[in-house]
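Q: I'm writing up a methods section and want to include an example of the input and output format. Could you take the sequence below and give the corresponding predicted C-alpha cells, formatted cleanly so I can copy it straight into the document?
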Amino acid sequence: MTHTRIDEGRVHQITPVPATRTLSTLGRVDYEDAFVVDVGGALTRSAEQWVREILEGAPIGVRLRLLSGWSAIGLKLHLPGSDRSGRGWDIRTSEPDFILLGADSQVGMPGELLLRREQNRLQFTTFVRYDNPIARAAWASTEAAHVRTVRSILELAGRRAAR
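A: Here is the clean output for your methods example:
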C-alpha cells in the first residue's frame, strides 16, 4: 500500500485519514488508498453528482477500461444507469458531502469507493477487503493499475472542473 504524497498535476495521493475508515461497511479493511483533487470553487455539486461525473462522465474508452478492470477482479456490478448505483456500484450511503459506493465480489475481494467534498477539493478513497489468499494475490497484481487509473480519472475530473 502506497502512502506517499505525489505532486503531479492536480491530483495528490495522500495517507488515508483513519476516521474515514469508519464510513466503510466492509467490516475489515485490508487495503486503502486516498487521493485528493483540486476542483477550485466548483463544489456546487453534491458528492453523488461528483462521483457520477468522475465515473460516468469519463470518455467512453476510460469507462470501458473501468468496467473491464472491475470485471477482471470479480466485482459484482449492476447495469449502469440505475438511480441507486454509480457506474454499476451500489450506493451504500449518500449525503451532500460524501458518497460511499460498494461492490460485492465473486472472488472474495469486496470493495468500496468513498468520495468526500472538502473545501476546494475532493477526496477519493478506495477500501478493499481480502477474504482469501487468492483475493490478496489478485489485488497485489492489480494495485499499480488501480493507482494509475484513479489518478487518471481524477485528473480528468479536475480539468473538467477548471473549465
